[in-house]
Amino acid sequence: MLTQILILLPLALSLITLLLKKERTIRYFVLAGTLVEFGIAVAAFIQYKTMCHCQLQVTAGWISSLGISLKFGMDGIGLLLVLLTTFLLPIIVLSSFSHSYNRPAAFYSLVLFMEMALVGVFTAFDGMMFYIFWEMALLPAYFISAVWGGKDRIRITFKFFIYTFTGSLFMLVALIYLYFRTPLPHAFDFQSLYAVTLTPAEQSWIFLAFFVAFAIKIPIFPFHTWQPDTYAQTPASGTMLLAGIMLKMGLFGMIRWMIPICPHAVQQWGPAAMTLAVTGVVYGSLIAIMQKDMKRLVAYSSIAHVGLIAAGVFALTIHAMQGAVIQMISHGINIVGLFIVIDLIEKRTKTRNIADLGGIALKAPRLAVFFMIMLLGSIALPLTNGFIGEFLLLLGIFERYMAFSAIAGLTIILSAVYMLRMYQRTMLGTTNEITEQVTDLTWTEMAPLIPLVIMVFWIGLFPGLFLDTTLPDVLTIMSYIR
Amino acid sequence: MTTIISLIILGILVLFLGILKKQSWLLPVILTGLIAAMALTVMDWNSVRSFNNGMLIVDHVSVAFSVVLIFSAFLIFSLAAQYYRGVQRPLDDIYGVMIFALVGAVMMTSYGNLIMLFLGIETLSIALYVLAGSHKEAITSNEATLKYFLLGSFLSGFLLFGIALIYGSTGSFDLHQISLYVASCSGIYPTMFLAGLFLLIIGLAFKIAIVPFHFWAPDVYEGTPTLLTAFMATVVKTASIVAMFRFFTLTFNGIHGVWETTIWILAAVTILLGNLTGVYQPNLKRMLAYSSISHSGYMMLAVVAFSPMSNNALLFYTLSYSIATIMAFGILILVREAHGNDFFTSMNGMAKTNPLEAFCLTVAMLSLAGIPPLAGFMAKYYLFTTALEKGLVWLVIIAIAGSAISVAYYFRPIIAMYLREPNGIPLKVEMPYKIHLVFMTLLVILIGLVPVFLVGIL
Fold this sequence. Notes:
The complex is a heterodimer of chains A (482) and B (458).
Chain A (H helix, E strand, L loop, with lengths): L1 H18 L3 H28 L7 E6 L4 E5 L3 H20 L8 H20 L3 H22 L4 H29 L8 H6 L4 H18 L9 H7 L2 H26 L1 H28 L3 H22 L2 H32 L10 H4 L1 H14 L6 H16 L1 H26 L15 H4 L2 H13 L2 H18 L1
Antiparallel strand pairs in A: 1-2
Helix pairs in contact in A: 1-2, 1-4, 2-3, 2-4, 3-4, 3-10, 3-13, 4-5, 4-10, 5-6, 5-10, 6-8, 6-9, 8-10, 8-11, 9-12, 10-12, 10-13, 10-20, 11-12, 11-17, 12-13, 12-16, 12-17, 13-15, 13-16, 13-19, 13-20, 15-17, 15-19, 16-17, 16-19
Chain B lengths: L1 H18 L6 H18 L5 E3 L4 E3 L1 H24 L8 H18 L4 H19 L6 H32 L4 H11 L5 H18 L7 H8 L2 H27 L6 H20 L5 H22 L4 H30 L10 H4 L1 H15 L5 H15 L3 H27 L11 H19 L9
Antiparallel strand pairs in B: 1-2
């Protein structure tokens, strides 16, 4: 029951939003709606915890002659990602209050539509449903970046669309191919797809098809070229949706669909995929060091961080998988926090150029504190959420591939380099004429940051709740490997 | 049979209304008549019968596709009021000829005899030659009709020659007799029969606009009055592809073989070339021409797969393709009316000046590109499933690559409408036309969300 509501509520809200006229009404309506959605997700979490392994599954027929059913539900991993999505949405909406978008009804309607698609992706128990929601998430993302984006938006967002759309078409072929290999009557639901036995050659092809689709979305080096430009051109809220939640779709798809469906190919191609992921870690970090624009710096740092998560997925150890899931959540929280802070700085100074800034901490101590906390989470300082995830990831990778773990471990050092340098050059030092007029945060501006900070420390200090939730599912998925 | 009779009566009625100078009655009568013809067709659903010694065979397939054809014609006629607004000359001849063309199309979906196929194609084609040139003052329209007529009549010769060769080797025009002959050949066919088969494929491929027999399509589409281009791109294409598939199902009866490689190659080339060339078109009408070429390539997938699911997949595909294409032409009519041309630049900023129309065109484009959850996606998905079931992995991969390329041009109007600054001329749209556009948009969305009504009925 809760699962349907979680999917249908944002859709209904999205349609209602289109009918509203005044910007103020729209904002508070959308904020209230996303908060209610979060409340439902929390209720689902409590229900899941108290009556374990019910998975809140709902099934309804759709096109039975083609084996497609409306089958939704949540295992621990999906549930945490739904929680992340519904938790971040009100924060993203709240942070968007400091901007005034043209045609707010259309903007917020697209944001809510995107929430619906994201929840659908994380709860789909049917392969075709997964694909349909996967593609549906792309449309609002495209329109948000393209319509409300920066000046070079047309070319860049188009590249983004073509890239991701092409990738996911490969996944479609793989899914239909698998469908015909399921026992009669053919079906798309995940148990049937998991049960398919494939020859090694077939597994490799299916693996490659899935890998391309997911690698573009995540993005794993060398499929990342759409990402920094798109982040730079997209409006702040769009970037948060893309970086905070949408790229988790790819990682989730790997854990949920790719590994159980073609376990042997994952093992066979694992080192190759691992090489790409670890290359991305080093490459993203090195380029981030060179960046002059704060948003681009965070975009490249994101390539490094998700590269590490992807490496953890391919390590195929329990620790790494646990770390990957927890780090998906942490990365979502940290990167949204960083983008909010950067957006607030940009709003005050009209620039994202690191060289133009300096001494903001003197003028805006609260801003500096929040920036520091999000940044420390991001560079995985102990007691913050990033530490838990990256520690588990590196531990898990080490258990299987010692060398990769050593190289991937560079991410912690390198991220400290670029993040702290950014902090030092923008926040510390003396003020200049641009930062002279900076004012400190107001309560409305702090409102979205406070819950993020709480989560940074909650996951950092007491990760047990989250790790316990995912452990049974991680074990189930690992059981397909052996 | 009732379909054909009722449509002919409707056509004659339209001509009489013209004689009686009741121009304002034309469209209401036509639209009601088409709905009536659709109802009569649906009533034939449960009666598989053949008429005139097997010349016409009414079965589920022919009924279903006749309904698609009449429905497409209905949607096109609903656009006519706006399109011919302000035109002084009487229109009964154009409308009458369109209905007679529709009769030809219906004959092509229900023939049981090659003579009937030829009659259907000629009824359709000759009507179309007239329609393509119906805008007599415009030089482009004259050019279009001449091109279409010269090539069309030449290719009709191919078709007729093919039919003659098939007759020569089988001794019959009747599809049932031919199927007996095919069965008796057990895989080894005489050269004369094969030559006839290939000439027949070429003749039909020309009508469907399959590469390399597509060269007429962009020029003719561009010159033909837009309303009739919509007719060409939907009704004619649906009828011809159904005619081709019907020939294979009724004669080869599940026997795979010789012709499939040819169709495979034609489909692959059509998809790739249609989509790649589509990217380079400067205006919406030529782009839609190439889009329709590439979609004929996708439809060929169902023919190549040649499985029991093919008919249904084709039905789904032609219906969703037709609705989305007619929608796109509906907006095209408005753009040409306001700007006098249909370059993508003319559509700049339409989302601000005409949000509803921009949204409708966006839905049409997304559906044609095959983006879930719209009708075009379900149709493509169904088609790919049909093809993959028969193990046509490479063809499906080519089709998917084609879909990816097609996004490049389907997004050009969307980008122009939403992301560029308006150029000041809003489109003037009347209320009924808006309602019609919204109706088609809802249809595209609903078919995508609730496809159960269309899946598994054939």
